[in-house]
Amino acid sequence: MPVLGDVARAADVSVPTVSRVLTGSKFVAPELRERVLKAVSDLGYRPNGAARATRSGKRSMVAVLTGATSNYGYSKTIEGIERAARQSGMSVIIAVLESDADDAVNAAIDLVLSQPVAGVIILEFDRPGLVAVKAFPRSIPLVIAGGGTRRPAGTTGALLDERGAGKDATNYLLSLGHRTVHHIAVPTMGKHSGRTEGWKAALAAAGAPIPRVLHATWEPASGYRMGQELAALGDVTAVFCGNDDVAIGVISALVDGGKRVPEDVSVVGFDDQPHVAMWRPALTTVRQDFQDLGARAFGLLEIIVESGGTPSPSTVKPELIIRDSSTAVGSPGN
């Protein structure tokens, strides 16, 4: 890729002149300006954000370390970070953690540290994120964005109280008269997610049987396989799924297995992705505001960067959204 010096040589001007043209910081004679812009066009030069990563003498770039970029929660959280950063005149770079292996995590951290970043936000939705939090040097301002209410010592974070939301979803299903609630968990950064912990805590508090946890991936096809297993049990009347994609797979499998949703089996998801309100039956789910999560994470990081202090963590409990995929035991049609 062409650099600033290449543009200067092609336009036969100095590097500071090129910089002044691109930033508009000082007047440049029209003839020189035209030569610089022509060289930029001919070479296909794109200004390097790192070269402009100062604002009032302060670094103005933040980095996001994430285990994925396409999954719903990840992408919306990053979107929230980017939007908040733009409003503050800051730019964002993203480094993907390919796995939780030490070499992969260290490679992503090295990439971030090679840039003039003001601070870092790590998405702690999975094990790669958890490992990165533990490995990242504390000399750089760090904020965690993720689910749960716990965080490593010496860090702060924007959090989603998944445990509380998992309890709410399970208690709601129990309130409909279901004897117990089966659970399909999605991949986690530890042994159990907050969603699973909340489900188990609610059943234990109610004195309800605690079924074996089924483990799915993030994909609807995985939910379909779990749904087939539940349909074959015969006594399943309520299912709490670790995310919406899994819930949709479960519903498809239950229907294909001769079950009616919600008349025979109530199903609840987690996330409230945009398409689930259009699903039939419309999915009862837990709404997580990931864009707000990203904005809160950036706000905490900005406080650290500007003041050097460590603000208290920001925790929000996701909201249960009741739609058509759940109903009371004994309601018409059961």
What brief labels describe this structure?
334 residues, alpha/beta, four-stranded parallel sheet, 14 strands
Strand order of the main beta sheet, please? 4-3-5-6-7-13
Alpha-carbon distance between the two ends:
66 Å
Number of distinct beta strands: 14
Low-confidence stretches: 48-57
Give the amount of beta strand, in percent: 15-25%
Helix and strand composition category: alpha/beta
SSE order, one letter for each helix or strand: HHHEEEHEHEHEEHEHEHEHEEHEE
> What is the CA-based Rg, rounded?
25 Å
Largest sheet: 6 strands, parallel
Oligomer: single chain
**Which of globular, elongated, flat, extended, rod-shaped describes the shape?**
elongated
Q: How would you describe what is shown here?
A:
There is one protein chain. With 334 residues, the chain is of the alpha/beta class. The chain has helices at residues 4-11, 15-23, 30-43, 72-87, 102-113, 127-135, 162-175, 194-206, 220-233, 244-256, 290-307, and strands spanning 54-55, 58-59, 61-66, 91-96, 119-124, 142-147, 156-160, 182-185, 214-215, 238-241, 266-268, 285-287, 314-316, 319-321. A 6-stranded parallel beta sheet has the order 4-3-5-6-7-13, sandwiched between helices. It has a 4-stranded parallel beta sheet with strand order 9-8-10-11, with helices on both faces. Helix 6 (127-135) links the parallel strand 5 (119-124) and strand 6. Helix 7 packs across helix 8. The longest helix has 18 residues, at 290-307. The N and C termini lie far apart (66 Å).
